[in-house]
TrEMBL record:
Pfam families: GFO_IDH_MocA, GFO_IDH_MocA_C3
UniProt KW keywords: Oxidoreductase
Organism listed in the record: Jiangella alba
Keyword Electron transport appears in the UniProt entry: no
InterPro entries listed in its UniProt record: Gfo/Idh/MocA-like_OxRdtase_N, Gfo/Idh/MocA_oxidrdct_glycsds, GFO_IDH_MocA-like_dom, NAD(P)-bd_dom_sf
Name this protein carries in UniProt: Predicted dehydrogenase
GO molecular function, one term: oxidoreductase activity
Length: 423
């Protein structure tokens, strides 16, 4: 099959991680793409990514600074991996040029930004895929099979809580700046997507939110080890960031979540936790409950039925005999019924990004909608902001429809102003 000419737009840490994913498809002889260009406003970043592509793919893409140039270099599709504030506008511009698009989540920095993108692409026949990787983890696919197969009975309760970080910088400075995304939104759009992937639409929430650590510290700026460096690709940029800075984005959120099905959820994300790092996620139903490991950890599920029967990992498979991973995920993770895998975080991160790319390529080739498109991307934003708007208002009940139609948006208003979308 003839390869699809593609460009990566945004050559920082996330763009590098996406290149790693593409190289995993190349290694497995499953790559539908020809990386013809890498695009960044900083020529040095573009050159570094082009050099990395030469090493990993065996061919060096051209470098350029904008979408028009990428198209002139032959790209018919783009993968947008810039910082979040540019996602919606670059995606709209790419669609207007007739390019197919995969864009990193969040699809917009606010709901207004996402609506602007939706208006811009209305009526287009171009593919728009949102790069949401967590749901593609084989363990999460198995959770979905347990729920859909009725193994848990009627779903009643979802729980997720996590903590860590203390007063250290999480990957990049922008993750602590409200007008650039903030850590609760950056991580939260992953987790709200997972809520609806498991249990369907969220209808309303109420929450408390805090900014606990008003000053954040970056040990990489003074020669120390980075506090967090997923994929090992952020060290150089972290060293150039301030050693300490003022945080403007809230760093802790505690919410109750109501699903259309009648299920209820508890969600707690504390990115200012000074104790031991913590993680818990589970889904509970009328027949049992499943404990779910952290995404990209490779650890097995633990399923308990009738309060006494416990199944772990592959022991679960006879309960969902029709469970099968898609062909690409099966090839990359060790088989169509992979339930756990002894791989490090960096490898799993690359493989899940490879799965995203494979699905994007198939959507282009077959002109079929991707699993996570614009509507799913917008809902992930809306549920996340429903929690944050509720928290900013002191805990009032906020519906997701309130967020989607713009009738509640005080917390987002300042962000809209900062990115040029204010009234």
């Amino acid at each position: 099959m003839e390869r699809i000419p593609v460009a990566i737009v945004g050559c920082g840490g996330m763009g590098t991680r996406h290149l790693f994913g593409l190289s995993e498809l190349e290694r497995a002889d499953l790559n539908p793409f020809d990386l013809v260009a890498v695009c960044d406003v900083d020529p040095a970043r573009a050159d570094r990514l082009a050099d990395e592509a030469q090493t990993r793919l065996g061919r060096r893409p051209a470098t350029c600074a904008d979408l028009d140039a990428a198209q002139r270099l032959g790209a018919v599709a783009v993968d947008i991996t810039t910082v979040p504030r540019f996602h919606h506008s670059l995606a709209a511009d790419a669609i207007a040029l007739g390019l197919d698009v995969m864009v990193e989540k969040p699809v917009g920095l606010t709901v207004a930004a996402a609506r602007q993108l939706k208006d811009a692409v209305a009526g287009s026949d171009r593919i728009l895929s949102v790069a949401e990787n967590f749901r593609r983890d084989p363990t999460n696919r198995l959770v979905k099979a347990l729920i859909e197969g009725g193994v848990l009975g009627e779903p009643r309760y979802f729980h997720q809580s996590s903590g860590g970080g203390g007063d250290l910088m999480a990957i990049s400075m922008w993750r602590h700046l409200k007008a650039e995304s903030g850590i609760l939104f950056d991580a939260g759009t992953h987790y709200t997507d997972m809520m609806e992937y498991y249990l369907g639409p969220v209808v309303s929430v109420y929450a408390q939110m805090r900014l606990f650590e008003k000053i954040r510290y970056n040990p990489a700026a003074t020669g120390g080890a980075p506090a967090s460096n997923p994929g090992g690709v952020y060290g150089q940029s972290q060293a150039a960031m301030p050693a300490e800075f003022e945080a403007t984005a809230d760093d802790a959120l505690f919410a109750m979540v109501n699903f259309a099905s009648g299920a209820v959820g508890q969600y707690a994300e504390n990115r200012a936790e000074h104790g031991r790092e913590s993680w818990a996620r589970s889904v509970h139903g009328s027949a049992g409950a499943v404990e779910i490991p952290k995404d990209r950890s490779g650890r097995p599920l633990v399923l308990t039925l009738d309060r006494t029967k416990t199944y772990t990992g592959a022991e679960i498979l006879p309960l969902v005999p029709r469970f099968r991973l898609d062909d690409v995920t099966a090839a990359l993770f060790g088989g169509p019924q992979a339930t756990a895998y002894g791989l490090d975080f960096e490898t799993v991160d690359r493989l899940l990004l490879a799965v995203e790319y494979a699905e994007f390529g198939n959507a282009i080739a077959t002109r079929t909608p991707p699993e996570v498109g614009l509507e799913e991307g917008i809902r992930a934003i809306a549920v996340c902001y429903a929690m944050m708007e509720s928290g900013a208002a002191g805990g009032r009940i906020v519906t997701v429809d309130d967020i989607l139609d713009g009738s509640v948006g005080d917390y987002q208003a300042g962000i809209d102003d900062a990115i040029g979308l204010g009234a």
